[in-house]
Amino acid sequence: MLMKKKAAIALALAATCLAGAAHASVTLSNTTTGSISSFGGGGSTTYGQVFTAPVTGVLTSFTLSLNGAVGGLYGGVGTWNGGSSFNTGYGSPLNLFHSPDVASSGPGSFTFTPNVAVNAGDNYVAYLSVIGVPGAFGAVSMPTGASGNGINYFVWNNGSSSPDGNASWNYFSNFGSATFSATFDERQGGAVPEPATWAMMLVGFGVVGAAMRARKANVRFAF
């Protein structure tokens, strides 16, 4: 009985270590400091936030907010090849995620779950857009927040074509950042257990094997 308990404890500890290694969650977030206008069918067609991935892993979710209704919109994530000074001709050359259209009937936050791979230190843009959304109207403001710690700067697009590969993004760092949060899973989809975790598992399996041998040795046959 004691051997069984030791085996169960060892395997439970190993499983806990594996679970922790596979789901190391990291979050970027800031707080609202003001707002910027105007987004929607009657204003800029795309509002985005440039961020730097804090880990190599998966962007599991991001949230952007609006101070009013624009009828409908979608969220997206793309790579970013621009800078923090006013310019055009740069933007998001590769789109990684484009959500279905969602309703925008009033002030609120919009959370999306792109589950796309990101690399630590690389820049990306998470955005809201009304391009091609039927019935989109505007315009409303977006709450803004502090920059720093991977939350880089606010960007926007006044064009009418998809942000994917669009070279008409306009941006200016003086606007700061949008109110933004994002969650990353550092090891999702291919976690490699730490050496200590493997050691714990080997101990657990060893205890299980010893318990099975002891149980076999204690078997008595009646003739």
Structural class: alpha+beta
Instruction: Give helix % range.
Output: 10-25%
Helices, by number, come to: 2
Shape: globular
Order of helices and strands: HEEEEEEEEEEEEEEEH
Low-confidence stretches: 6-11, 188-195, 200-205, 216-223
Number of domains: 2
CATH topology of the largest domain: Jelly Rolls
What is the distance, rounded to the nearest whole angstrom, between the alpha carbons of the first and last residues? 27 Å
In short:
With 223 residues, the protein is an alpha+beta fold. The chain has helices spanning 2-22, 195-217, and strands at residues 25-29, 32-40, 46-52, 57-66, 71-79, 95-98, 102-104, 108-112, 116-118, 123-129, 138-145, 151-157, 169-171, 177-178, 180-185.
Describe this structure in words.
The structure is a single chain. This protein has 223 residues and is of the alpha+beta class. The chain has 2 domains: 2-23 and 189-217; 25-185, Sandwich (Jelly Rolls). It is 20% helix and 39% strand. The chain has helices at residues 2-22, 195-217, and strands at residues 25-29, 32-40, 46-52, 57-66, 71-79, 95-98, 102-104, 108-112, 116-118, 123-129, 138-145, 151-157, 169-171, 177-178, 180-185. The strands form 3 sheets. Strands 3, 5, 6, 7, 10, 12 and 13 form a 7-stranded antiparallel sheet that branches. Strands 1, 4, 8, 9 and 15 form a 5-stranded antiparallel sheet that branches. Helix 1 runs antiparallel to helix 2 (195-217). The model is unreliable at 6-11, 188-195, 200-205 and 216-223 (pLDDT under 50).
